[in-house]
Specification:
- With about 140 residues, the chain is mainly alpha-helical.
- The chain is about 65% helix and about 10% strand.
- The protein has helices spanning about 5-20, 30-45, 50-55, 60-70, 95-115, 120-140, and strands at about 75-80, 85-90.
- The chain has a two-stranded antiparallel sheet with strand order 1-2.
- α2 (about 30-45) crosses α5 and α3 packs across α4 (about 60-70).
- The longest helix is centred in the C-terminal third of the chain and has 23 residues, at about 120-140.
- The chain is globular and about 55 Å long.
Length: about 140
């Protein structure tokens, strides 16, 4: 069995992410906006305080960003049924459409790249999907 070169894996993931997040898209948004939209799409309605750890922004910056996205019609706030003093932030239909259209665009671009791989390379990549998913789960579980 071959030892995993974690340093090389890290570099490859960093390089892939740099290219992947820059794949052309229909509409351009800054990274923080996209991160908030993506997080809410994946995790559902959240309190602002629950977004803070995932977005790596200070509370005033995140509050301002959420207010702007709400004003732009991409997010909405509603009272938290568990605590009427707090609000839950969720995507609007427009916000969900942005996330879905960007995802579909990336699927198309990545499909074009994957089609250029050899059958053997595609098989290796297919076998890696579950492992990468598991690494993501472990990262989310680790404080």
């Amino acid at each position: 069995m071959t030892d995993l070169d974690v340093d090389r894996l890290t570099t490859v993931i960093e390089d892939f992410n740099t290219i992947f997040i820059r794949l052309p898209s229909v509409r351009k948004f800054n990274f923080s906006t996209l991160s908030v939209l993506h997080t809410l799409d994946r995790r559902g309605p959240l309190r602002l305080t629950d977004l803070l750890p995932t977005e790596q922004l200070k509370q005033p910056a995140l509050t301002s960003l959420v207010a702007k996205l709400e004003q732009d019609g991409l997010l909405q706030r509603r009272p938290d049924p568990a605590d009427g003093r707090a609000s839950l932030i969720s995507l609007t239909r427009s916000g969900r459409q942005i996330v879905r259209s960007r995802h579909a665009n990336r699927v198309a671009k990545l499909t074009h790249l994957v089609d250029q791989l050899t059958p053997e390379e595609r098989a290796v990549l297919a076998g890696s999907v579950d492992v990468l998913h598991r690494l993501t789960e472990l990262a989310e579980e680790t404080p």
